[in-house]
Structures are given as structure tokens and as C-alpha cells.
Amino acid sequence: MNVMRFFCRHRMNAGTPTRRVLLLTLVMASVCQSSAVLAIDADVKGVRGELATNIRNYLQSLNIPENADTQSYSAEVTQRVQDALKPFGYYEPDIAVSFQNREQVTVDVDHGTPVRVRSVVVRVEGAAEDDEPFQQALQASPLTGMEGERLLHTPYDTLKSRLTALALERGYFDARYRQSRIEVHPWEHAAYISLIFESGERYRFGDIFVTGSQIREERLRKMAPFDPNDRYLATDVARYSQRLGDSGWFRSISVRPRLDERARKSASPMVTSSPDVSVEGPDGKRQNFQDDIDAQERPQQATVPIDINVTPEDRHKFETGIGYSTDVGPRINFGWNMPWLNDRGDSLNNDLVLSGPEQTLTGEYNVPLANPARDNYYMRYGFKNTDRTESDTRSFESSVAFGREWRFENDWIQNAYLRTTYEDFTQGDEEDKVLLFIPGMSWSRTRTDNTRFPMWGDRQDILVEGSNNAWGSDANFLRTRLDSQWIRSLGENNRFVGRATVGATSTDNFSQVPPSLRFFTGGDSSVRGYEYETIAPENSDGDLLGGKHLLVGSLEYQRQVAKNWWGATFVDAGNAFSEWWPDELKTSAGVGVRWISPVGPVRLDIAHPFDSEEDSWRLHFGIGPEF
């Protein structure tokens, strides 16, 4: 009806003369009115719960035209009610139908004696007989224990679908059902179930065929999480696709096993009768019977090739952005990324970030190794100029690092590097120029269920690095830092966020350690309520010097108050210090709001510092993901 009305309006706007428009409008309105139908509203009596709900679902799609004889639809209503009861084992109900009008009907149902299961034969044969997921599916299905119980079609269909899905997931592409039927004898209220699954041989991965790639095909093949002749797993195909996507080399990716297309039916909101039901009367005649599904033609070898079709990513990509945080104020960033430079897949990324107190230019050149998804060499370089009066820091830093990165299956990323840093700095009343050669190791891991706004996740970062005069550095030190953040939820409306950071430095001449390697705290992501990096040891004039050690912790509770809005309350504590344990921890508490925007959470916090003589509260604002 809505389609017809739209058509009428559309035609009138097309410039038709007035008289013809009026005539067409009257004709179309008459058609729309005469063909108007409404879904029927059923009042179900005699049964309740899932039986009544299923009857209403079956009748919902029944539409009776205006001026139609409602009694002529009684037979159809009766048939639909019978069909709605069969999946629950009721095959001989008594049904009375009474129409109030074409939109309302009352059905009085006596479901009668249920059909009960006399015997159940369920088993898996072939190579899958010893495959654990198939045995788990059989053990978890209520179908195997239905003997003597009321017949329900759903457990049968669920198990059958599960076995079919497992066959596709685990490479049993010649699988068939040697028997698949529910034989119902309504006249004796009995049913006989037989579900015998013949899996055939399990396929193995075959050759990988690549089309459209600008990267050497050998590199793409080595990214596969499987080897040729490994047993087929659909999850390995998905992991392969993800690895190719994570490389950044391609704009589009298709990874498919070379199989025949199989049609899929969408799920219905109604509980329907199993298509394998055979209703047998006293004369032995069967109807709607399916059994012995034909096997597909078996290839000569039980292997499945993998076809990869890719479209190269643009060779140059540019990104610009504007942001703001109370730590650095407004900032502008510009990125120039080259996802691939040659057929080896080398890449180059450059980022320029400009704000009032800090200006940073960084770059990274990556050289993937034999398995590009796991290992690569890199060169990182950068320049950073800092002028922060609140932390008494002025510094110009340039650095270049050469390193090796490993990505492990357990999500940990390991880095080993050698960094050369030159820093010209003034920190409080200390001035110096230092050249450092710093070998180091780092480990990191991030896990989330949703990168934009996770309800579960955690992140760990571990760093160990040092410098020594023995290899030409101007300072001796050994430095470590451990960061951890976690997110957990209770239900859908309660979220908990915790953070902890520990840092330590061992050195015999702290004045030669540049500000970039000293510890400061305070600000949006550490101890809120205090200005950015203003918590640290001071000299006799009150100038900040930075600390050898660091200890920071935070605990936050968030509660959802609207669809994309959350309220928050938090407690932060921490300090940077020169001894092995702080004399005190600066503490703050506050409240805030979180808005889940398309680019990630927008955070607004009001924090009260308990140990500040200058501020009674401070506003903190930030945009972007938490991890």
C-alpha cells in the first residue's frame, strides 16, 4: 500500500496535465483501497506459552482482503494452527475457529495426545567418527536422550544443522546423511528418529593460487597459518584473510576455498516442522519423506585449493587530523604513509604532530622478513622539540633506531633495538647535551573485544633499556617501565577500568639523563586533577627535575545512563620520586562523562587534587580509543 501511494505521488510530479493527474489519482487510490490488507490478530485459547506464541506467528502472515468472506478462511486458519503445533509433537489437535472481523480471529485449541519418541538412532560414521567436535555435538544434543519423551522437531534440526556446519568447517566436503528422517505414526502417537551422518574423508589444504597481487606471491603464501597437506579448517582460512588485511598492502582481499556454492536459508522466527518428517498412516503411505541424500562427486584427490584475489592499496596515502586535549591543547597531525614500496612489501610511514608545547616528526621504514605477518626489521627516526614551562622542560631531541620485531601467536609483540639519541636539554637548573647509544627490549600485548569501546580488554607494555660509557654513551643508566591497563564489565551497564604504571632507573649521574628518559606524572592519562607532568622531584628553587622512579595507579567505575552515554567516577594516585619508595602519593578523585562517538570515546572529567595548594579542581578532556 505504501508502494502504491509513493507511485501516485511520483507520477504527479512528472508533469502530467491536471485532468489526467486527477483521473489517475482516483484510479490508483481505488486500487490501493480495494487491495488494502491487514495482518490478522489472533486470540489463542486452550494453550499457552510457546505453543500459543507459535500459533500467532503462523497466523501473522495471513491477510484477508476487505469485503472478503472471513468464514472461507477457516480451513486455512485451521491448517496453519495444525502446522504450528506439529514441531511440538501434537499431530491430532481439535481446533475451533471464530472470526470477529477480517482483522481478528479466535482459535480454541485442544492439542490432544502428544506423539512420543519410540526410538532414536543417531551416529556419525566415517573419518569424523573420531573427530572430537562431532562427538561433542552428539553429547551436547538433547536428541540422543529423547526416547520416551514428547517429540520435538527443534533438537533434530539443530543437531542436523550443527553436523552439516562442522563438516564444512572441518573439511568433510563429501559428507552426506545416509539416513535423516523423523517417521511419525499419529494413529499410534509414536515417532521414530534416525539420523546417520556419513562424513567421508577429511580434505586437506591444497595449493594456493594468487591473482592481482603487486607483492611477490611467495611472500603471501608464507603468511598462511597452514602448510600444504594440513587438515582443512575454515578458521585457518579466516585467519589467513586477516593476516593479509593486517599487512596494509591491499585495498580488497578475497580468500576462498575452491568449493561449489551452497545455498543458505535464513532463519525463520517461527518454529517450523522439520523437512525430514515422514507422516505414515495405518495404510503405510508416507508423505514429505527425505532420505539418503546423494553424495557429491568426489575429486581424484581429497585436497582443496585456496584462491586469493587481491586489489593493491594506493601507493601513497595522506591523512590529516585536528585534536585537542588538556595536556597539550589543540594539535594538528599530518600523515604520509606508503603501504608498499616494492614487490617485497617494504613500507614507509611518516607522521607530523604540531601543538603548542610539542612538535614531533617521526618515521618508520619496515622490511618484512620471510613470514611478513610475524617478523620484520625496521628503522625508526624522529625529531621532537619540547618547550613546557609548567614542567620546566626545554628540549630538542633527534633519534634513529634499528630493530627487529616478532609477533607471536599468543598476541605478544617483542622488539629488540639499538637506538641512537642526541638531546640538547634544559631541565630546571640543569643543562646538557648528550649523545646516547641505547640497546633495549620491549614486550607488548593488547586484547579487546571491541576496539572502539571495549567491554573487555587489557594491555601490557614492558620496557628494559640501558646505556653505558663503555660503548660511547655520555650517560650510564639502566631503565625499566611496566604499564598495565584492564577493562572488565559486570552485565551490560557496568564497566570497570584500572591502570597501573611502575618505572625505575639505576644511574650514577642522574643529571646526564635527558628529560625524555626521566619520569614525570600528572595529566589526562595519569593522575588527573594535576597539570600535565607537574608531579616530580624539585630543586631548591621549586623547579621540576624529574624522577628516577615512578608509581601510578587508577581505578574507575563507569555506568551507562543512555544509549551512548556513560557516567564515571574515579580515584587516581601516583608520584615520580628519586628514592626507591615515595614519601607520599599524590591523590585525586572526580567524576566524568563518556560519549561513544564514531571515532571513539569522548572523555570529560572533573578531578579534585587532594594535595595541591594551587588548584581545587581541574577539567580534563580527551578524544580517542582507550587502548
UniProtKB/TrEMBL annotation:
Signal sequence, start to end: 1-39
A GO BP entry: protein secretion
Predominant localisation class: membrane
Domain Bacterial surface antigen (D15): 330-627
Superkingdom of origin organism: Bacteria
GO cellular component: cell outer membrane; TAM protein secretion complex
Location of the TamA POTRA domain: 43-110
Alphabetical keyword list: Cell outer membrane, Membrane, Signal, Transmembrane, Transmembrane beta strand
Sequence similarity: Belongs to the TamA family.
Subunit structure of this chain's protein: Interacts with TamB to form the translocation and assembly module (TAM).
Identification of the protein by name: Translocation and assembly module subunit TamA
Biological source species: Kushneria phyllosphaerae
